[in-house]
Design brief:
By secondary structure, the chain is of the alpha+beta class. It contains ten helices and 16 strands. The longest helix is centred in the C-terminal third of the chain and has 18 residues. It is globular.
């Protein structure tokens, strides 16, 4: 029998839940937890295939490799997970980021299969909220037929982020390796058309969902504080891009950030806030579905999964 990607996901989902810790259960494609009366689920869009230099950047190599070795990360290509967050609160089904779609990397773009494994039709999604407009977060909003995949959903993005990618000057100022990101973003904004609206910083974009400015990875990158009753959680997108170097040395500029200095300042501020508030969070490229907490360490911080 030929095992397809969809069948593999369905088989894994049907095999039962693997216990991770209090309040969490994981199958191949999804991790779920509760925030008050609401449910949060992370769905796998696959992973990225990146050169090691994308992870190391300009970091002091000896110290960086020591941190990576202690975290069990072998030298070689960098393969970060891609976790898409689904927030079910009453009648709303809110997706944070839409994955890569079929046109970016063959190792990603698997969100439709993950949704099917979870028994969710894309037409059920009421809102799609973007942290930023990089391909692995935006391009999956449009299907192979250039139609919005989440046809019944309102799509929301920060106004500064939208303006940045739509600005003709961006193509001439962005790193040449990312120029295709500009054309890809503009095209998908056009295809989303009236489905797309923008919002401002610190705005409650939906009841219980507050936009938090976390710039640096992109100029208008946003995180989102989710509140239900006394419970809360933050969706941080790519403000923290990995579970080792970014935690141990958040002050180091990261090669993945379009503005590395600003990204580092944002990371330091965000980690300090999350650790002080003991607020759980979800990182798009963090392991195990991305759900965890920021804990202070002797130097820097550490990621506590679950």
């Amino acid at each position: 029998m030929t095992v397809t990607r969809r069948r593999l996901i369905q088989t894994a989902a049907a095999s039962g839940a693997l216990i991770l810790g209090p309040g969490l259960r994981r199958v191949w494609a999804q991790t779920t937890t509760a925030v008050g009366d609401a449910e949060v689920m992370t769905l796998s869009d696959g992973h990225l295939e990146l050169p090691e230099s994308f992870l190391l950047g300009e970091a002091p190599e000896a110290e960086a490799r020591e941190i990576l070795a202690a975290a069990g990360v072998a030298a070689g290509p960098y393969r970060p997970e891609c976790n898409v967050t689904l927030w079910r609160d009453g009648d709303r089904l809110v997706l944070f980021d839409a994955g890569a779609g079929p046109a970016f990397m063959s190792s990603a773009g698997q969100l439709p299969d993950a949704l099917a494994a979870a028994g969710i039709d894309p037409g059920e999604v009421t809102h799609v909220v973007f942290t930023h407009a990089h391909p692995d977060h935006l391009w999956g909003a449009v299907d192979d037929f250039d139609e919005p995949l989440f046809a019944n959903a309102e799509h929301l993005i920060g106004g500064f982020e939208l303006d940045y990618w739509n600005d003709p000057a961006t193509l001439g100022t962005i790193d040449p390796a990312r120029q295709s990101f500009v054309a890809g973003a503009v095209r998908r904004f056009e295809l989303l058309g009236d489905h797309l609206r923008s919002f401002g910083t610190d705005e409650e974009i939906l009841s219980g969902v507050i936009a938090v400015s976390t710039p640096g990875h992109t100029p208008g990158h946003m995180s989102f504080a989710l509140h239900n009753g006394a419970a809360s959680m933050m969706v941080i997108g790519d403000a923290v891009g990995n579970a080792h170097l970014a935690f141990a040395r958040p002050d180091w500029p990261a090669a993945a950030d379009q503005d590395p200095e600003m990204g580092a300042a944002t990371r330091v501020r965000l980690m300090d806030q999350l650790a002080a508030d003991a607020m759980p969070m979800i990182g798009f490229h963090l392991p195990g579905g991305g759900i965890g907490r920021v804990e202070r360490a002797q130097t820097g911080y550490r990621f506590e999964q679950g």
